[in-house]
Write a structure and sequence with these properties.
Belongs to the universal ribosomal protein uL4 family. The protein is of the alpha/beta class. Among the domains are: 210 residues, Ribosomal Protein L4, Chain: A (3-Layer(aba) Sandwich); 31 residues, no CATH class; 36 residues. 28% of the residues lie in helices and 9% in strands. It is built from 13 helices and 12 strands. The strands form 4 sheets. Strands 2-1-5-10-8-9 form a 6-stranded mixed beta sheet. Strands 3-4 form a two-stranded antiparallel sheet. It has a two-stranded antiparallel ribbon with strand order 6-7. A hairpin with a 7-residue loop joins strand 11 and strand 12. Helix 1 packs across helix 2. The protein is flat and about 135 Å long.
Length: 412
């Protein structure tokens, strides 16, 4: 935002006058390119004209499908004969001469309603951006030789009635270089628009904002790229063309003085717009890191608390017996009683099983530790205490006859 307190006034000869004007408060407003772009995009829609295709288009023929079994597509086909048209597909959007898919209607939602406060916010941002030379130059305007931005001219410029007078005034103000840029940029439009009455395109030049039209509009309107606007009817589409802030504006003195009454000064509300004042910035300084580390804030705030958070492991008392005993000390007695009861039940159950098997109380503890195997003997069980002595038993397996000897049965 522009922050200098006074703005110089130049006469039609490009010289500084003795008069100085206080910079209007609107030039100190917050610049919000996002709001400007959105409002411009919505406002641009309000100039559209409804269009639609004919309701009868593509359906002005009697066509019927041939059905299946004819080895052709089931699209409706034109009736009759004697012409190439008969038998051709009709109605469908894939057919020559058929209707389009989803035919356009005139009752489409063409225009958009925009909140009035949002429109005003966008306008304030666009005006504030015109007072910053860096933004104006980034937009492509040739203002290297301009004495000052925003450029304020004496009200005598409103009395220009000839284009040559307006051109001479622009040359004296060193603003004609921007008009030359517009002339050099004139070219053919890319695309189909060349066939639709808009063959050539060119860049934007200066915007002249006046208070009273005493011939100024007719003098400036034929200069390439120049746009004229009354200060009472500022248009965002002209101040921020394309939704981009930073157009080069030339203000007349009376129009420049009228801005405080139109948009207010924060201390005083607008006299033209009921109850309106300039948008207030949320922060006067956006350097938050510097603010937090400043001595004034550091001396006022207390020291930070060191909060120690101890994370405890939550244990399940149904699985952790120590935690269960802490919660219920009687659980140890209950578990011991349950174990004794389980052992008693198991003992009674085993006794009942032994009784049914006829074993009684006697139990045989026959446990063979190992089975010994010898070449000449079979497996012999190790004797168990109380069951007598075990003795080896000779093997009854027959030995194979030696080589070269015949058996007795084989002799005759």
């Amino acid at each position: 935002m522009a922050s200098r307190p006074l703005v110089s006034v130049h006469n039609e000869k490009g010289e500084k006058t003795t008069a100085n004007i206080t910079l209007p408060a609107v030039f100190k407003a917050q610049i919000r390119p996002d709001i400007v772009s959105f409002v411009h995009f919505e406002m641009k829609k309000n100039g559209r004209q409804p269009y639609a295709v004919s309701e009868k288009a593509g359906h002005q023929t009697s066509a019927e499908s041939w059905g299946t079994g004819r080895a052709v597509a089931r699209i409706p086909r034109v009736r009759g004969g004697g012409t190439h048209r008969s038998g051709q597909g009709a109605f469908g959007n894939m057919c020559r001469g058929g209707r389009m898919f989803a035919p356009t209607k005139t009752w489409r939602r063409w225009h958009r309603r925009i909140n009035i406060n949002q429109r005003r916010y966008a306008m304030c941002s666009a005006i504030a951006a015109t007072g910053i030379p860096a933004l104006v130059m980034s937009k492509g305007h040739q203002i290297n030789e301009i004495a000052e931005v925003p450029l304020v001219v004496d009200d005598k410029i409103e009395e220009c009635k000839k284009a040559k007078e307006a051109v001479l005034c622009l040359r004296k103000l060193k603003a004609y270089a921007d008009v030359e840029k517009v002339k050099d940029s004139r070219r053919f439009r890319a695309g189909r628009g060349k066939m639709r009455g808009r063959r050539r395109v060119q860049k934007r030049g200066p915007l002249v904002i006046y208070n009273q039209d005493n011939g100024l509009v007719k003098a400036f309107r034929n200069i390439p790229g120049i746009t004229t606007l009354p200060v009472d009817k500022l248009n965002l589409l002209k101040i921020a063309p394309g939704g981009h802030v930073g157009r080069f504006c030339i203000w007349t003195e009376s129009a420049f003085k009228k801005l405080d009454g139109l948009y207010g000064t924060w201390k005083k509300r607008s006299s033209e717009k009921t109850g309106y004042n300039l948008p207030m910035s949320k922060m006067t300084s956006t350097d938050l890191n510097r603010l937090l580390k400043s001595d004034e804030i550091q001396n006022a705030i207390r020291a930070p608390n060191k909060s120690v958070t101890r994370r405890t492991q939550k244990k399940n008392p149904l699985k952790n017996h120590l935690l269960m005993e802490k919660l219920n000390p009687y659980s140890r007695v209950q578990k011991k009683a349950a174990r004794l009861l389980q052992a008693e039940r198991q003992k009674k159950k085993q006794a009942l099983i032994d009784q049914k098997r006829g074993l009684g109380a006697k139990k045989y503890a026959f446990k063979a530790d190992y089975y010994q195997l010898t070449p000449e003997e079979e497996y012999i069980a190790t004797p168990v205490e109380g069951q007598g002595k075990g003795r080896p038993r000779k093997s009854t397996a027959k030995k194979a006859p030696a080589k070269g000897k015949k058996s007795a049965k084989g002799k005759k």
